[in-house]
Amino acid sequence: MLATAFAVAMAGLVSGAPAAAAPGCKVDYAVPSQWQGGFTANVTVTNLGDRVDGWRLTWSWPSGQRVTHAWNATVTSSGADATAVNAGYNAVIEPNASASFGFNGSWSDANTAPQSFSLNGVACTGNPGTPPPSDAMAQVAAMQPGWNLGNTLDSTGSDETSWGNPRVTEALLDNVKAQGFKSIRIPVTWGQHQQGTTIEAAYLARVKEVVGWALADGFQVMINIHHDSWQWISAMPSDRTGVLTRYNAIWTQLATAFRDSPKQLVFESVNEPQFTGSSGDAHNAQLLHELNASFRDIVRRSGGTNATRLLVLPTLHTSSDQARLDELATSISGFGDPNVAATVHYYGYWPFSVNVAGGTRYDATAQKDLTDSFDRVHTTFVARGVPVILGEYGLLGFDRHTGTIEQGEKLKFFEHLGFYARTKKITTMLWDNGQHLGRTSFQWSDPELAAQFKSSWTTRSGTASTDQVFSARSSAVTAKTITLNPNGTTFSGLRQGTTELTRGTDYTVSGDQLTLTTSAMTRLSGARNYGTNAVLSAHFSAGVPWRINLVTYDTPILANATGTTAAFSIPTTFRGDLLATMEARYADGSNAGPHNWTSFKEFDRAFAPNYATGATTLTPEFFAEVNDNARVTLTFHYWSGATVTYSVIRSGSAVTGTP
Q1: Which of 160, 327, 392, 406 is catalytic?
Q2: Which residues pair with residue 583 across a beta bridge?
Q3: Whether 621 is catalytic
Q4: Which pLDDT value is given to residue 89?
């Protein structure tokens, strides 16, 4: 078994019994020897504060380990908690001096290192101040912003085109560079290109070619082991030897192939690691630590530029949950390697990210999910001198299409993400599977979205409570008010195209309330045809303008329908309105359809509007979880605020629907 070492620079030195001292200490915890059921550990306590006369070190075992014999200290246990007290001859620790002790211990399912230590009652932080910038920190900062070459070399078919994207060209990379990206992540799936444990020469040569083009373009480049994580690495709990053999073989070959590539090439150990059939969190942490440790050891031992190359290590599932961050922090601290970065992914607050459970808006809950996530990452890593790469970001609903999330709410998410990541010194890499930047057209599919996230790299942009102002055609035109979100900028004016609207006549501003006057609404609405009658833009002192559509609508009309569970559409006259979400309930008030913990169904998976054909579709996935011969009341919620109820009954594979 490979020896493992964990250095835990966690916690803050001594005040409290037995003696007081200024904060500052470091604890190095190493496991030089481990065998089935047993291990040896060495612990060194370094005093970074004032003189200590008498010490007590405490920690908790994350995996239920027990100390069986100790030297140079008296070690006792109470449940998962352990305490080491100095011997008579090592009670004094002068400033910048150390005391060491060791012990033998036992373990069963896992031998995960302690995640924190406290000395004389005070948690250790590793040093008394903010760590100085490292070369790794500077390199990761130079990678901002980054872009993913997704669904290409990571595809699981016979070649890079098997998921529908064209072959990578030098021209594509040139155009990515021209968009302002400084780094490119090239995900690679290797398993289908292994003969035994040997990577096919032609495939490795192709990866080297693309990497070479990217380096020649001046990119920082990151390559990894990608979908292998769920294809076969996930079987590690039941096939540890087989998985490690195959994994180590890939990194041994890659380390050799890229040994002398410039330092601008970065290695990421594995994408979104996950394990099937493990015994739980501690087991998962042990397995991921073993993968990361083996990866680091192989690369470093290969020499050349690899001896100091930046290596990127993920959390389990690339999650930013605190427990997952702590597990990786323990590993990184133990490696004692200054050229290591951490990586997580972020796809938003899940109900908003996929538009389910009423998560139609980027509201305070969704915002807090983002800020909490980035705060945890910053506190755990960046503040302690470990750089962080947000290796992928986006919205999960994009797996269907970018229209699953309303445009304005989507823009607010990307604006906020870019800003907050920047304040937390987190480098971001946009996930692009081909749906954003055209691989041959080199044009953005959504220029407005691209402008928003590109602006967020350097500044904030003002937004508003909505990008849609609705007026019912069945009612008289009235003034309309929305809330401005300046985001630290200053509102400077309102325009229609290049025409400046007149403040006081066309609109008024009171605090953060922007009101379009009745006269302006009347003029801009024109003949009041259903749909968007005018497009305005709110301008601010920085960033990109905020688009505001003036929309004329009436409540949509839904008609009777018949069909099957495989093909059912409700004829819908949308009358200028736009569908936000749909609820589904049985007659007794209980929830119907998928995700039955909520009445609000997932956009495009359970239902979808088709404005071109005038229909609202209910999917086979929806009916698969609807009770037979039970009336389901659907409530359609539209962005105007209108709601329409509709009933469907499924009888076998037949479906009937009535308003």
Answers
A1: 392
A2: 600, 635
A3: no
A4: 85
